[in-house]
Amino acid sequence: GGSITNIMQAGFEIDRMKKTDVLHGFNIDGSVKWGPEWFFNNIHGRADFVNLNLTAKGYFSLLELKWAESDLTLIGIYLADRVQVDYLTGSAVPEFYQEDPSLGTKMRGFEGNSYGTEFTVVNNFDVRIYGPEFLDNINPVVQLFLDAGYQAGRYFNTEYSPEGQFLLSTGFVIAVNIIDFTQVGYMFGFPLVGENIQQQMPQSGI
User: Fold this and answer.
1) Which end of the chain is more exposed for a tag (fewer CB within 10 A), N or C?
2) Which ranges constitute the DSSP H helices of 26-78?
């Protein structure tokens, strides 16, 4: 039936990024989100939770070539790595706050909102190929990725606490970058360790 949720939030950010087509540098941010029940979170629905997050991103440029006598990028290759740690717990965690910390959402190749336990940590590693850029900030992008994650603790809003589990996935992204605002394309990812929910369900015969 929906809910009204009020939260208090605090955080920090350290940004040492080189803002070019081929990213280089690092970014670190941390946050605390707290939505206690006494903070008017039982007026419509109910919420009572706290989320601690720490995210670190690093980028390393391998190659950047420009078109002759142009600022447009002919080809760029760089490495990207993200580590994200979440601890989300409480007696009533709203569904829309479960998505980002869930391990299945943070790992490509798994279903969003799956593997939603109190503690999750993920490492997303990419090799990214940028270009050729024919118009300013409009160009193809190719990403090869390897994601590794770990989950532990209780599933959200339950008393069920499974054993800690390690997940691994890989795949690729082929897309078109549009003025650094969005990417339109195709992602293919599949689990190497762990299963999607649909694969775990029994299949009925004809």
Assistant:
1) C
2) none
Category of 43 on φ-ψ map: left (φ > 0), alpha (ψ -120 to 50) or beta = alpha
What pLDDT, on the 0 to 100 scale, is given for residue 199? Answer: 61
Q: What pLDDT does residue 203 have?
A: 45
Q: What is the pTM of this model?
A: 0.88
Give the per-residue pLDDT at 23: 87
* Res. 137 pLDDT band, cuts 50 70 90: confident
E-state strands within the chain: 8-18, 24-35, 48-66, 73-92, 117-130, 138-155, 165-178, 182-193
3-state secondary structure 95-121: HHHHCCCCHHHHCCCCCCCCCCEEEEE
In sequence order, the 6+-apart residues with CB closer than 8 A to the CB of 193 are 166, 167, 168, 169
Helix (H) or strand (E) holding 3: none
| Token pair 């549009």 in the structure block, residue | 178
Please give the backbone phi and psi of residue 97, each rounded to the nearest 5 degrees, phi first.
-95, -5
Nearest CA-CA partner of 80 in 13, 149, 150, 18? 18
pLDDT at residue 200, as a whole number: 57
- CA torsion sign for 93, 99, 100, 106 is positive
Please give the single-letter amino acid code of residue 88. Answer: L
Sheet holding 8-18, edge to edge: 8-18, 24-35, 48-66, 73-92, 117-130, 138-155, 165-178, 182-193
